[in-house]
Amino acid sequence: MIFTSLDFHLDSNFGEEPVTRLRPFRLRINYIVDSFSMRVPRRIRTVSFHKLNVCVRYERRQKTPFCAIEGIGMVEIVDPIAESIYHASVSETVKRVKEYLRMGLGIASKNDALFAKHADLWDELLATVDEEFDFDLRISRSHRSRRWACEAVMRITPIAYHYDVLVKDSKSRQTIQRHRIKTTEPAFPFYRGVGFSKIRWELEDIVGFSSDGGEVFRFSAELPA
Predict the structure, then answer these.
(1) How far apart are CA 136 and CA 159, in angstroms?
(2) Which stretches within the chain are classed as H helix?
(3) Main-chain dihedrals φ then ψ at residue 2, nearest 5 degrees
(4) Cβ neighbours for 33, distance < 8 A, ≥ 6 positions apart
(5) Residue 192 burial (C-beta neighbours within 10 Å; 0-12, 13-18, 19+)
(6) Distances (CA, A) of 101 to 27, 28, 87, 97
(7) DSSP secondary structure string for all residues of 126-171
C-alpha cells in the first residue's frame, strides 16, 4: 500500500472527551500530524496500511500493540496517566505527543518491513514538524505573457495555517511576491478552510473563485517591468 497519513488519538479514563476539552488539545497538536503527513514523499509503500493511527489509552484494548484492518494501521500505547496531558503546558504537550508518535512509529516499523525501511525519514519528519513550510494546494495559473505564474499554498506553522498566493518567475521559479488571503486555526480538516478552488489572471489582477464561480478575492500583482 501507499502510505499517506499519520494521526494521533488519546483515550483517557474520562470516557468520550467533551469538545471543550478535546478541541483545545487538538489545536495544540494538529500541526504535528499535518506537517508530518503532508511531507511524506509520494509512493512510499507499506505492507498493510495507508494510514497509521497512534492511539494512547489508559488500559489495553487491542490484543496486540499493532494491528491493521482495511488499510488502517492501529498502534496502541498504554499509559495509565495519559489524560494528564490535558493539564500540561503547550511545550510539554507537544513534547509528549512527539514521544508517543516516535514510539508508535517504532512499533509499526517492527510489524511492517516496508514501513521500517524508511525509519530515518520518519525520524527526520517528526524532528522537523515545528519548521514552517508551504504545502502546495495545486491551484495555479500562468500569466498570459508566460513570464509569471501564481500558485496557492498553505503555510503550515505551529500556531496557525495561512492561505497565500505566490507570484513566481516562470523561468527561475523564484517567488517574487507573497499575498496572504486568510489565516485559520490549525484545525482538521484543513481543506475546509481553503474557500477557493481556482485562480486566474485578469491583466495584472489575480482573482480567486469558489467552486460555484463566485469571486472570493482579488488583488493587483503589480508586476515588475
Answers:
(1) 19
(2) 19-38, 90-111, 113-116, 119-127
(3) -95, 120
(4) 5, 6, 7, 8, 101
(5) exposed
(6) 17, 15, 19, 6
(7) HHTTTS-EEEEEEEEEE-TTSSEEEEEEEEE-SS-EEEEEEEEETT
Backbone angle region of 175, left / alpha / beta, with phi > 0 → left and psi within -120 to 50 → alpha:
beta
Task: Record the cell numbers describing residue 210, joined without a space.
Answer: 469558489
**Which of 190, 155, 151, 146 has the alpha carbon at shortest distance from 167?**
151
Q: Cα torsion for 74, 75, 80, 86, to the nearest 10°?
A: -70
Whether the CB-CB separation of 184 and 172 falls below 8 Å is answered with: no
125 backbone dihedrals φ, ψ, rounded to 5°: -60, -45
Closest C-alpha among 64, 60, 71, 58 to residue 111: 64
Instruction: Record the cell numbers describing residue 200, joined without a space.
Output: 486566474
What is the full per-residue pLDDT of the chain (225 aa) written as tens digits? 999 999 999 987 666 677 888 889 999 999 999 999 999 999 999 999 999 999 999 888 889 999 999 999 999 999 999 889 999 999 999 999 999 999 999 999 999 999 999 999 999 999 999 999 999 999 999 999 999 999 999 999 999 999 999 999 999 999 999 999 999 998 755 555 688 999 999 999 999 999 899 999 999 999 987
Q: Which residues, at least 6 apart from 97, have a Cβ–Cβ distance to it below 8 Å? A: 8, 29, 32, 85
Helix (H, G, I), strand (E, B) or coil at 88: coil
In this structure, are residues 119 and 109 in contact, taking their beta carbons and an 8 Å threshold?
yes
